[in-house]
């Protein structure tokens, strides 16, 4: 039996959790899910279509506000209730955190950002290390095997035969200590405008090469000229240059435009995970050896602050002409 | 006064090409050089801010080979006051081993009258990327842990930590002693001043050997992903490439408007 910690948002089961359920089925065992907090009919139906046998559902006051340790207690209860020997979650911040808690509490190893798994007894997983620039083969010899699945490593695919997805309430023993570190307030989220990015026909990308929060003028102009959406790397969101909903990649949106124009983006594996389904890529980068350049369809070698204004001017010239 | 322990790891600089050691057990940093990951630089900055605000002491700790003293010195140059070096080959330690070693230092310091009320770590190490040392350490010490935040402050024995969550900007308030793991982005690490560098050179670094034999990571080996075949068409260099770019835009039919 494989147990998957599934995350749910307003739209139901989040995409990376659906990917993880798909990955879980490939391990060959039956798949159960554990859900903490609100479930909802839509999410339950999705879990059924992804082949889930039983949904172990933890609700109650202890879960009103997020606490990593309390969630871990719920997952442990799910392990006992399902008799699972494998425990998986998507490689999201929550997934990583909760599974690390579980691994510490169960005193077993955890493998983060797994791409594939082979064998049994022991399972050997391949996972991303060094920011995806290298891979590690790791042995998981203890039970339960605990791993998180790297975002967008597999396509989310419903099961050939749906599961029953019977919802069973979990009795969870949450201790006071498990609630000490819990969220005490959550501020209004940024409006999630990533829908437009995910379905955009053309996406202009911007990375560290933009240089600063003020370095986006000509990129936004190109975005406008092409009626495109702006997508950025994590460096850009981490530095606070642009909002998170514009992030493309493993921990951002996955895009599949006809044309992606990444400017000043190196093409780290986690970024690539979000843009690899673009039909054409036109990279603009000062470094001819940047992975984004070598993987692109077309490339211009140069400073984006020179190249992009020239492109904008050329587009305007042809439109006027 | 808050006494802070901040844990940093010497990691190979992976911005250029990654090379593996012959035995496939570690990244060979001899060519690219070594660095401290961005998350940990921000943790060091937060340690300097917290102790700067209330007169506490910031201790930086690393488990690494002799050369890892470089990471300790650079942290001392930007606001840490003391340093502890567990001299060992980091790649022979799994995340549970590292957590156990840090806990051993904390307990021993505490027994000697030096408490570490707040322990800061990175959310994940830039090389091994295990995403778990901080959480395992918290369980070793029986302390609460907040994960993946980028702002940290302390008042009245309570740490307030903030960061981005799936539903918005989240705040935690946790009584000390506590463990907090840090993501980059909330603070700008300061540059070392000349004065800071001079001071850092004079600090006596506490050297230790590991408290226990490591169980080791469950690593079979590291490997490099196969290079993707490239059939990129270079349209040109610099601004001169613009007409060729717009030709492509026209060809792909994304210019029509
Ligand atoms: C668990 C995990 C999840 C992650 N998730 C994501 C994710 O979802 N999305 C994501 O993007 N990253 C993600 N990352 C981070 C990822 O590993 C990289 O650090 C990041 O994508 C790099 O961003 P960048 O390309 O903008 O910056 P860099 O890697 O610093 O690259 C900058 C590039 O710009 C070029 N450049 C510099 N100046 C100019 C100029 N003036 N003109 C033109 N080119 C220039 C440089 O040659 C270089 O290629 C994740 C990492 C981890 C560990
Ligand atoms: N060898 C080490 N020495 C000091 N701190 C470490 C070491 N390894 C990991 N850490 C800390 O633990 C954090 C998480 O590491 P990891 O769980 O390995 O991804 C890092 O960001 C560091 O702050």
TrEMBL record, chain A:
Q: Which SMART domains has this protein been placed in?
A: ETF
Cofactor(s) needed, names only, are: FAD
Output the Pfam families linked to this UniProt entry: ETF, ETF_alpha
Domain Electron transfer flavoprotein alpha/beta-subunit N-terminal, chain residue ranges per copy: 2-183
The UniProt keyword set, sorted, is:
FAD, Flavoprotein
Q: How the cofactor binds, per note? A: Binds 1 FAD per dimer.
Q: Which InterPro entries has this protein been placed in?
A: DHS-like_NAD/FAD-binding_dom, ETF_a/b_N, ETF_a/FixB, ETF_asu_C, Rossmann-like_a/b/a_fold
Name the GO terms of the biological process aspect: fatty acid beta-oxidation using acyl-CoA dehydrogenase
Q: Name one GO molecular function term.
A: flavin adenine dinucleotide binding
Residue numbers binding FAD: 208, 233-234, 247-251, 264-271, 285
Q: How does it assemble?
A: Heterodimer of an alpha and a beta subunit.
**Family per UniProt?**
Belongs to the ETF alpha-subunit/FixB family.
**Role according to the record:** The electron transfer flavoprotein serves as a specific electron acceptor for other dehydrogenases. It transfers the electrons to the main respiratory chain via ETF-ubiquinone oxidoreductase (ETF dehydrogenase).
Tell me what this protein is called: Electron transfer flavoprotein subunit alpha/FixB family protein
**Organism, scientific name:** Nocardioides iriomotensis
Automatic annotation (TrEMBL), chain B:
Its needed co-factors are: FAD
Q: Which UniProt keywords apply?
A: Electron transport, Transport
| Entry's Gene Ontology molecular function annotations | electron transfer activity
Name the InterPro entries for this protein: ETF_a/b_N, ETF_b, Rossmann-like_a/b/a_fold
The question of whether 4Fe-4S is a record keyword is answered with no
Q: Which residues form the Electron transfer flavoprotein alpha/beta-subunit N-terminal domain?
A: 19-217
Q: Give one Pfam family.
A: ETF
Q: Which family does it belong to?
A: Belongs to the ETF beta-subunit/FixA family.
Described by its record, this protein's role is as follows: The electron transfer flavoprotein serves as a specific electron acceptor for other dehydrogenases. It transfers the electrons to the main respiratory chain via ETF-ubiquinone oxidoreductase (ETF dehydrogenase).
Assembly mode:
Heterodimer of an alpha and a beta subunit.
This chain belongs to the protein called Electron transfer flavoprotein subunit beta/FixA family protein
């Amino acid at each position: 039996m494989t147990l998957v910690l599934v995350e749910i948002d307003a739209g139901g089961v989040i995409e990376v959790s659906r990917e993880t359920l798909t990955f879980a089925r490939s391990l060959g065992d039956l798949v159960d899910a554990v859900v903490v907090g609100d479930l909802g009919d839509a999410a339950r139906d999705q879990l059924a279509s992804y082949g889930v046998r039983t949904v172990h559902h933890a609700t109650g006051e202890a879960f009103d506000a997020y606490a990593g340790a309390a969630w871990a207690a719920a997952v442990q209860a799910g392990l006992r209730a399902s008799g699972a020997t494998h425990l998986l979650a998507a490689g999201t911040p929550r997934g990583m955190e909760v599974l690390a808690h579980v691994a510490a509490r169960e005193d077993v190893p955890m493998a983060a950002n797994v791409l594939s798994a082979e064998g049994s007894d022991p399972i050997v997983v391949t996972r991303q290390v060094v920011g995806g620039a290298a891979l590690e083969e790791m042995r998981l010899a203890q039970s339960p095997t605990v791993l998180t699945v790297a975002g967008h490593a597999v396509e989310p695919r419903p099961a050939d035969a749906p599961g029953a997805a019977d919802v069973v309430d979990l009795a969870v023993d949450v201790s006071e200590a498990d609630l000490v570190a819990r969220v005490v307030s959550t501020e209004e989220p940024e409006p999630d405008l990533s829908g437009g990015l995910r379905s955009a026909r053309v996406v202009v990308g911007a990375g560290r090469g933009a240089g600063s929060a003020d370095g986006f003028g000509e990129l936004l102009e190109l975005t406008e000229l092409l009626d495109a959406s702006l997508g950025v790397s994590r460096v850009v969101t981490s530095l606070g240059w642009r909002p998170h909903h514009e992030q493309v990649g493993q921990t951002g949106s996955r895009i599949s435009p006809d044309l992606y124009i990444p400017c000043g983006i190196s093409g780290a594996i986690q970024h690539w995970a979000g843009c690899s389904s673009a039909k054409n890529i036109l990279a603009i980068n000062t470094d001819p050896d940047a992975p984004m350049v070598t993987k692109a369809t077309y490339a211009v070698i140069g400073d984006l602050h020179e190249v992009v204004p020239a492109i904008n001017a050329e587009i305007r010239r042809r439109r006027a002409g | 006064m808050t006494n802070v322990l901040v844990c940093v790891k010497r990691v190979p600089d992976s911005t250029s090409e990654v090379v593996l050691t012959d035995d496939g057990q570690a990244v060979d940093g001899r060519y690219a050089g070594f660095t401290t990951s961005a998350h940990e630089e921000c943790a060091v900055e937060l340690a300097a801010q917290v102790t700067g605000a209330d007169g506490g002491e910031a201790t930086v700790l690393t488990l690494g080979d002799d050369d890892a003293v470089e990471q300790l010195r650079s942290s001392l140059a930007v606001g840490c006051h003391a340093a502890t070096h567990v001299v060992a080959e980091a790649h022979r330690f799994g995340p549970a081993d590292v957590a156990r070693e840090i806990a051993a230092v904390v307990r021993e310091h505490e027994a000697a009258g030096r408490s570490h009320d707040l322990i800061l770590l990175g959310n994940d190490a830039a090389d091994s990327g295990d995403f778990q040392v901080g959480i395992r350490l918290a369980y070793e010490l029986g302390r609460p842990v907040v994960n993946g935040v980028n702002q940290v402050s302390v008042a009245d024995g309570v740490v307030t930590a903030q960061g981005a969550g799936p539903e918005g900007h989240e705040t935690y308030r946790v009584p000390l002693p506590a463990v907090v793991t840090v993501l980059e982005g909330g603070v700008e690490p300061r540059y070392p001043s000349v004065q800071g560098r001079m001071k850092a050179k004079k600090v006596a670094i506490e050297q230790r050997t590991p408290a226990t034999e490591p169980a080791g990571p469950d690593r079979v080996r590291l490997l490099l992903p196969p290079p993707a075949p490239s059939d990129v068409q270079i349209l040109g260099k610099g601004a001169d490439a613009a007409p060729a770019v717009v030709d492509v835009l026209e060809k792909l039919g994304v210019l029509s408007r």
